[in-house]
Design goal:
The complex is a heterodimer. By secondary structure, chain A is of the alpha/beta class. A 5-stranded parallel beta sheet of chain A has the order 7-6-5-8-9. In chain B, helix 6 links the parallel strand 11 and strand 12. Classes of the chains: A alpha/beta, B alpha/beta.
Chain lengths: ~325, ~425
């Protein structure tokens, strides 16, 4: 097996073959999840704690289901409501939790690098469920699995990522992953939503949808946060939809069999046309959700194996 | 009779730009003899054989934060004084960004008294330019000058209101007071934890364009032209800010500029995986900027190198990078870090001593910073070649937030003298 990490903190740390290993294992879990009997025992006896310092419904549910299907005891901690409001620091919270001997810690935090910091202080495996604008590795992995299943490969594809790239951890993890798998990446956004130094990322940069989408195989839309819609970064949501929202007319510039992706939750009529999002011939958005559970099962399985190996057990 | 005679020393003379082996005599706390030829040595009560090590004017560090009043657990005058002595810093020019700010004569008198009681080196305090460093009303600049303030600054709080800033500059000019500005556009730099670019984007950190510094400097230069004030830019850290600085000097404005030792020896990539000891203000820059700054120190365009010593306790640094406090301690690492510039052939020793001793002294009208007859015998004896691995546990500062922990360095301070008296001797 070629996956030797203790934590899953970011795609940055993964090699190409490790990504493939993880996706291959996730395929098995897709099969399991579609069966009537959905239970595995890879995480039996282990404790999984989901610590979300930022609101999340989908990601948290996906991790919870993934853990439960593999037999882990899963606990959800809503951190806004707990000790953080009492002034406890992130590290104190981590140390407290560490003393309870969890095996898997799933963390989302609004600050970039916070999950790395926490991982330095605990003994268990840590999975990054999104830290600030930094990384969201399981999202990139589930996107990769979705693309691989839809296109039959995960290399030499032309992939456009469109929208609020500057503030998006999904975009960062995807740029890194798809780059490592040797794809051609195009970023499309108004300059105000493009990160600085983007020219050095090894990607092609566009501020026009028609140009950027020309002949691409995959169109990945990003969510535009509500607080960025009015005046600050773009003039208004309706002007944004007019220029950057994905509809059938803009999609026509892509290859005829191009797929449409979105990490959710969607703003219908802001970054994507509702009808298009529901078009089962083009949109793989529901597949992404399905792959999410499988990829998270695979990630936690691999980390648990490594942890057992570290502790002297059989891997 | 001479009190102390230092023989067999490599004397660094920042004024003459020379390093010459010779002897130096001290009498009544002042330099009384400098002998670099065959002239017989005077009689002395005590003779120190320097063993061909370097003897130079003690460092004058413009911009040290001592956390009194308010946060004595981070740094006191006692601990900062010991750190300074161990680092060869004989004069600390302290910042007013304490809690509360040093913005009235009473607080200033407290600070001066505490410094006198506790610190073995010279301490000269700066005072705030506006009350509470809030940028709304100027402080009692006249009273503060009388009480001993050597310069006025709101530190990293930029006085955004140009009307307030202009009035404070005009008023300060009428009293001949020096004002330190922090060249930075406050709008662009709000909330930034890094310098914008590929690294900050990959790490997902809120970042500021280096252009914000040039915009801030351009504004301040216009204000100097308007008011004729005496002005010193506390930290210039980007190549883009250098041409306007050069023009302002050519135009004859009363302007000088400093930079920090960290911006001369580290770059943005040193932050690596969110290492908060590397979070400083302004943030670390790209390597091109670092090299441009080293060149500007060598050419004299940048006048002053400061430690920008900023103690932060573990709690304020053990946080996610965005939430962690800014600043690094540097009194004890200023000299060995500066030796990196010497060993890499970027800056020669006399030029380093102009920037770390002579120029800040001249700018503040102090007699120190020189190897000259009659100058105060504030001296540092050091070995620029002695190697060591920096261990933050050995620091004298109460806070040990140094970015050089574990770093290989060269340059050890052997002994420090203030007014001819030894205040530090390496064990």
């Amino acid at each position: 097996m070629t996956f030797t990490h203790r934590h899953l903190l970011g795609i940055e740390h993964l090699r190409q073959d490790e990504i493939t290993t993880l996706l291959d294992l996730a395929e098995d879990y897709v099969t399991l999840n579609r069966a009537t009997q959905k239970h595995g025992d890879a995480l039996a006896g282990l404790t999984q704690v989901n610590m979300f310092f930022e609101n999340s419904t989908r990601t948290q549910a996906s991790f919870e289901l993934a853990g439960k299907r593999l037999g882990a005891d899963v606990m959800n901690m809503a951190m806004q409501a707990s000790s953080i409001t009492k002034g406890e620091t992130l590290i104190d919270t981590a140390m407290t939790l560490n003393a309870m001997h969890p095996d898997l810690l799933v963390v989302r935090h609004p600050h970039s690098g916070a999950v790395d910091l926490l991982a330095q202080k605990v003994n268990c495996a840590v999975l990054n469920a999104g830290d600030g604008r930094h990384e969201h590795p399981t999202q990139a992995l589930l996107d990769a699995l979705t693309i691989r299943r839809a296109k039959g490969r995960l290399h030499r594809l032309s992939i456009a990522i469109c929208g609020d790239i500057a503030h998006s951890r999904v975009a960062r993890s995807n740029i890194i992953l798809l780059g490592k798998m040797e794809n051609r990446i195009r970023l499309i956004a108004p300059p105000t939503l493009m990160p600085a130094g983007i020219g050095e990322f090894g990607v092609e940069v566009y501020d026009d949808m028609a140009e950027g989408l020309k002949d691409v195989d995959v169109v990945m839309m990003l969510r535009l946060q509500r607080e960025r819609m009015d005046g600050g970064f773009i003039p208004s949501s309706r002007e944004y939809y007019h220029r950057y929202g994905l509809d059938a007319a803009k999609l026509a510039h892509a290859k005829p069999d191009a797929i449409v992706m979105h990490p959710g939750p969607m703003n219908r009529g802001v970054e994507i046309d509702g009808t298009l999002a529901d078009d089962i011939n083009r949109s793989v958005i529901q597949d992404q959700v399905e792959m999410g559970v499988a990829v998270r099962m695979a990630a936690m399985d691999l980390l648990a194996r490594n942890q057992r190996a570290l502790q002297g057990g059989v891997a | 009779m001479t009190d102390t005679l230092f023989t067999n020393a490599k004397l660094i003379n920042p004024e003459g730009g020379t390093v010459i082996t010779g002897a130096l005599g001290v009498t009544d706390g002042k330099i009384s003899a400098i002998i670099t030829d065959e002239t017989p040595h005077p009689q002395a009560r005590e003779t120190v054989d320097c063993d061909r090590k370097h003897l130079a004017p003690g460092l004058v560090d413009l911009g040290v934060k001592v956390c009194e009043p308010g946060e004595r657990h981070k740094e006191s005058f006692g601990s900062a004084g010991l750190a300074a002595a161990a680092g060869g810093v004989t004069t600390m020019v302290t910042r007013p960004d304490t809690d509360p700010a040093i913005d009235n004569p009473e607080t200033l008198e407290f600070v001066i008294r505490r410094a006198r009681e506790a610190a073995p080196v010279n301490v000269l305090p700066m005072a705030a330019l506006t009350k509470g460093r809030q940028g709304r009303e100027m402080t009692e600049i006249g009273f503060l000058l009388d009480a001993g303030a050597v310069a006025f600054t709101d530190c990293d709080n930029v006085v955004a209101d140009t009307k307030v800033f202009g009035r404070a500059l005009s008023y300060a000019r009428s009293l001949g007071a020096l004002v330190l500005g922090h060249p930075q556009d406050p709008g662009l730099s709000a909330g930034a934890a890094a310098t914008s670019g590929k690294f900050a984007s990959l790490r997902g950190l809120p970042a500021v364009s280096p252009m914000a510094e040039r915009m801030g400097l351009d504004r301040d230069i216009a204000m100097i032209e308007l008011t004729g004030a005496r002005y010193h830019a506390d930290q210039i850290t980007t190549a883009r800010a250098l041409p306007p600085l050069e023009r302002a000097k050519q135009n004859g404005f009363d302007i000088t500029a400093g930079t920090s030792i960290h911006h001369l020896t580290l770059n943005a990539l040193d932050v690596a995986d969110y290492r908060t000891f590397f979070k400083i203000k302004p943030p670390l820059r790209d390597e091109d900027d670092r090299l441009a700054m080293a060149e500007a120190v060598q050419s004299g365009l940048i006048d002053v190198i400061s430690s920008m010593h900023t103690p932060q306790d573990e709690e304020s640094k053990r946080l996610p990078f965005e939430a962690a406090a800014s600043g690094a301690v540097a009194l004890e690492t200023l000299l060995p870090a500066a030796m990196r510039l010497f060993h890499s052939d970027h800056v020669d020793l006399p030029t380093l001593w102009r920037a770390m001793s002579l120029n800040p002294a001249k700018r503040l009208g102090l007699p120190c910073g020189r190897l000259a007859i009659g100058a105060p015998a504030d001296l540092v004896l050091f070995d620029p070649h002695a190697p060591f691995v920096m261990d933050r546990a050995t620091l004298q500062s109460k806070s040990r937030n140094t970015p050089f922990d574990g770093a290989r360095m060269q340059g050890k301070v052997l002994q420090t003298y203030v007014a001819g008296h030894s205040v530090y001797k390496r064990a």
